[in-house]
Design brief:
The complex is a heterodimer of chains A (495) and B (158). Chain A has 495 residues and is mostly helical. Chain A is 73% helix and 1% strand. Chain A has a two-stranded antiparallel sheet. In chain A, helix 8 runs parallel beside helix 22 and helix 9 packs across helix 20. The longest helix of chain A is centred in the first third of the chain and has 34 residues. The relative contact order of chain A is 0.19. By secondary structure, chain B is mainly α. Chain B contains six helices and no strands. Chain B starts with a helix and ends with a helix. Classes of the chains: A mainly alpha (495), B mainly alpha (158). Chains A and B meet through helix 9, helix 10, helix 18, helix 19 and helix 20 of A and helix 1, helix 2, helix 3, helix 4 and helix 5 of B.
C-alpha cells in the first residue's frame, strides 16, 4: 500500500509541472472537440492528434495523449445530448435520455450531469486502476514466453467472443491482422517475408499508419454520405449548466453502481464502452422505481452510462499498461501513440520506468479534474463546434490525418498504405468484418510470434509447454471457455 | 453473392496465397528451426479454414447472410469521391518531398474541399490556405518539426 502511494507521488512529481498542466488543458480541450464530432470517436480523435505530441519530451507527450484520450471520452456524449447524434458507439445510450432532456429545455442539466458523471466514473475507475496495476504488473513479470503466448491468444480470442458480431468474421480479421504483422524482415532470423519484391515493405508495415487509415481516413469516407449535414440547436435554450439537488439525489446511486461495472467491462478485451454503457443503462432501468421514465428524459438514464463509459476507459488502461494489450480500438491507438514515443507498455514499464508508468496514471487523475473544469463552464462554447458544417470539418480531419501520417516515418509510401487501408477498411465495414480485432492482431502479432517461437525452442518443438505451465494453461482454458460460452450464447440467441 | 460467402472467398484466397508464400520460406538449420515459417503457416491455414467455414455455413438453408452490396452503382458519386480522394491523397504524399509542404497541402485541401463542399470556391480557397499556414505554423515553427521545404518555404525566415 505504502509503495503504491510512493509510486503515485513519483507520478505526480512527473506530471505536475506548468508545461504538463497546460498541455493537459490543450489536449483535453482538443480531445473533447474531436470526441464530440458526430461519427468520429475517441479512436479517430487520438489518431489524428498524435502529431501534436511530436517534438515534446516523452513525459509531456504521454500526458498530452492521455488528456486527448480522456477529453474524447468526456466529449463523446455532447452530440448525443444536443443533436441526438452520437459522437461514437459508446455515446449511443446517451441519446436515449440526453436528447429528450434537451427537448424538455433541460440541455444545461444534461450537459452538467454528463460531465459530472464522467468525472465521478473516471475518479472511481482511477481508484481501481491505481490499486490494480501494481499487483498485475508484478504477476506479469513472472511470465515466460509460454505464458505470454497464451495470454495473447486469450486476448485475441476474447476480442471476438466478447464483442457482438460474427465469430468467424472476427477470426478472419485476426488472421489478416496477424498476416500484416509478419510482413518485412524477420527480427530473429533476418529473413525477408511477404514483401513480394516491394523494398518499401522490408521494414514492415507501421501499424499506426494502418490505424490512421482505418480509423481516421475511413471515418471520413463513411461520412461522405452525410456531407450536407448541418446540425442546429438554439444555444439560448440550453439554460444553466448545472443540476438541482433532486437531480443529484437521483443520479448519485446510479453513478456509484455503474462505475465499478464499467471498470470491469473495460478490463476485458473486446467489450469496450458500448457494452458498458448498454449494460449500465439496462441495470439502472431494472433497478429503477420508475422504469417508464427511461427514454423520456430520466437524468439517471444519462448519468449511469456516462459514469460507466469513463470508468470503462480507466479499466481499459489496466491491460494496456500492465500487459501491453489494448482491449479496444481506442486503446490500440493509445498503445500506438505510446510506442511511437518510445514507451513499450507492459510489466517492465513499472520496474524500468516507474516515473513514466505512474506519470501517466497521475496525469489521468489530473486530467479528470481539469476536464470537469473545461466541461462545466465551457460546455456552451464547446458545443457550438457542432454547428460547424460537416462539409468544412471533413477536409480538416482528412488533412490532419495525412499530415500525421507523414510525421510517423517521413515516408511517401505511408500515404499509399494509409489510403489503401482506408479503402479496404471501408469495404470491410460493408462486409461487416470487424476492424478492432484486425488492428489488435496487427499490434500483438510480432510479440505473439516471438513468444510462440521462443516457447517452441524451449520445449524442443512440443506444444505441450502451453498446457504444462499452470498460468499458461489457465489462459488457454479461459480462451476455450470464452469461445464455448460465446458459441452457446449465439446458438441460444439464434434459436 | 452474400456477405459471408464473399468474406469467406477473400479469406481463402488471401490465406491460400499467404500459406503458399510461407511454404517456400527458407528453413533454419540450427536453433529456431521452424522459426520464420511456423507462425505464418498457422495463420494462413487458420484464415483458409475460417473462410471455408464461412462459405459452408452460408450454404445452410435459411441461414444465409445478407447480399453483399457495396453500392458501386447506387452510390457511384460516393465511390467517385472515395477513389478521387485516395488517388489525390497518394499523389499528395509523393509530391510533398519535392514541392515542399505549403503548396501541396493547399492544393490537396482545395481539392478535397471542392469535392466535398461544392460551389463555394472562395470559402474553400480560404480554408485550404488557412489550414496549410496554421498547420505549418504549429508543426514547423511552434513544435519545430521537420517539414519538407520547397520554393515557398525557402522564402520564409523560419
Amino acid at each position: 500500500m505504502q509503495e503504491i502511494f510512493a509510486n503515485l507521488g513519483l507520478g505526480f512529481q512527473t506530471a505536475f509541472t506548468f508545461t504538463n498542466i497546460l498541455w493537459v488543458f490543450i489536449g483535453g480541450t482538443l480531445g473533447t472537440i474531436i470526441g464530440m464530432l458526430p461519427g468520429l470517436g475517441p479512436a479517430t480523435g487520438v489518431a489524428i492528434l498524435i502529431p501534436i505530441t511530436f517534438g515534446m519530451n516523452p513525459a509531456t507527450a504521454l500526458i498530452t495523449m492521455c488528456a486527448v484520450y480522456y477529453g474524447a471520452m468526456f466529449g463523446g456524449s455532447r452530440a448525443s445530448i444536443m443533436i441526438n447524434t452520437p459522437g461514437d458507439a459508446s455515446a449511443i445510450v446517451s441519446c436515449f435520455d440526453g436528447y429528450p432532456m434537451t427537448k424538455q429545455g433541460r440541455a444545461g442539466a444534461a450537459l452538467a450531469i454528463s460531465a459530472l458523471a464522467s468525472f465521478i466514473g473516471g475518479m472511481i475507475g482511477m481508484f481501481f486502476l491505481v490499486f490494480l496495476t501494481q499487483p498485475i504488473a508484478a504477476a506479469a513479470l513472472k511470465f515466460g514466453p509460454a505464458e505470454m503466448f497464451s495470454l495473447m491468444m486469450f486476448a485475441l480470442v476474447a476480442t471476438i467472443t466478447l464483442a457482438e458480431g460474427n465469430l468467424l468474421k472476427g477470426a478472419v480479421a485476426i488472421a489478416f491482422g496477424l498476416m500484416l504483422s509478419t510482413v518485412g524482415i524477420d527480427a530473429l532470423t533476418g529473413i525477408i517475408r511477404f514483401t513480394y519484391g516491394a523494398e518499401a515493405l522490408q521494414d514492415g508495415i507501421d501499424f499506426l499508419v494502418i490505424i490512421i487509415g482505418v480509423y481516421a481516413v475511413c471515418e471520413v469516407f463513411k461520412n461522405f454520405k452525410d456531407i450536407n449535414a448541418v446540425y442546429k440547436f438554439d444555444s439560448k435554450h440550453i439554460g444553466k449548466v448545472w443540476i438541482t439537488k433532486e437531480d443529484w439525489k437521483r443520479s448519485l446511486p446510479p453513478m456509484l453502481r455503474s462505475s465499478p461495472l464499467g471498470f470491469i467491462v473495460g478490463v476485458l478485451p473486446g467489450m469496450g464502452g458500448t457494452i458498458a454503457t448498454f449494460m449500465s443503462y439496462a441495470m439502472e432501468k431494472n433497478l429503477s422505481k420508475k422504469p417508464e421514465e427511461f427514454g423520456k428524459g430520466a437524468i439517471e438514464g444519462l448519468a449511469a452510462p456516462e459514469a460507466a463509459n469513463n470508468a470503462c476507459s480507466c479499466g481499459a488502461m489496466v491491460p494496456l499498461l500492465t500487459l501491453g494489450i489494448p482491449g479496444s480500438g481506442t486503446t490500440a491507438v493509445m498503445l500506438g501513440a505510446l510506442m511511437l514515443l518510445g514507451v513499450r507498455p507492459g510489466p517492465t514499464l513499472f520496474t524500468d520506468h516507474p516515473e513514466i508508468a505512474w506519470g501517466v496514471i497521475a496525469s489521468m487523475l489530473i486530467g479528470n479534474i481539469i476536464l470537469i473544469i473545461i466541461n462545466l463552464p465551457l460546455a456552451i462554447p464547446l458545443v457550438q463546434i457542432l454547428k460547424v458544417p460537416t462539409r468544412i470539418m471533413l477536409p480538416i480531419i482528412m488533412g490532419l490525418a495525412l499530415i500525421g501520417t507523414y510525421f510517423l516515418n517521413y515516408s511517401s509510401f505511408d500515404f499509399v498504405v494509409v489510403m489503401v487501408s482506408a479503402v479496404i477498411g471501408y469495404l470491410f465495414s460493408k462486409l461487416e468484418i470487424p476492424l478492432p480485432p484486425l488492428v489488435l492482431a496487427l499490434i500483438l502479432g510480432g510479440t505473439t510470434e516471438q513468444a510462440l517461437r521462443n516457447s517452441l525452442v524451449l520445449s524442443d518443438g512440443s506444444l505441450g509447454i502451453f498446457v504444462q505451465k499452470p498460468i499458461s494453461a489457465v489462459f488457454i482454458v479461459l480462451a476455450a471457455a470464452s469461445l464455448v460460452y460465446s458459441l452457446a450464447k449465439r446458438k441460444k440467441h439464434a434459436a | 453473392m452474400t456477405k459471408d460467402t464473399l468474406t469467406g472467398i477473400i479469406a481463402v484466397a488471401v490465406g491460400g496465397i499467404y500459406t503458399a508464400t510461407a511454404l517456400v520460406l527458407p528453413e533454419m538449420r540450427m536453433g529456431d528451426k521452424l522459426g520464420p515459417k511456423i507462425f505464418p503457416l498457422v495463420v494462413g491455414i487458420g484464415s483458409v479454414l475460417a473462410g471455408l467455414a464461412l462459405i459452408l455455413g452460408d450454404r445452410r438453408p435459411g441461414k444465409q447472410s445478407k447480399k453483399a452490396d457495396f453500392g458501386f452503382v447506387e452510390h457511384k458519386d460516393l465511390w467517385l469521391k472515395i477513389v478521387l480522394t485516395t488517388v489525390v491523397g497518394i499523389v499528395y504524399g509523393l509530391v510533398m518531398d519535392k514541392l515542399g509542404f505549403l503548396i501541396p497541402t493547399t492544393l490537396f485541401m482545395l481539392f478535397i474541399s471542392t469535392l466535398i463542399n461544392k460551389g463555394r470556391l472562395v470559402q474553400n480557397a480560404v480554408l485550404s490556405a488557412v489550414f496549410a499556414v496554421i498547420t505549418y505554423g504549429v508543426f514547423a515553427v511552434a513544435l519545430k518539426l521537420s517539414l519538407p521545404r520547397g520554393f515557398l518555404e525557402s522564402l520564409l525566415p523560419f
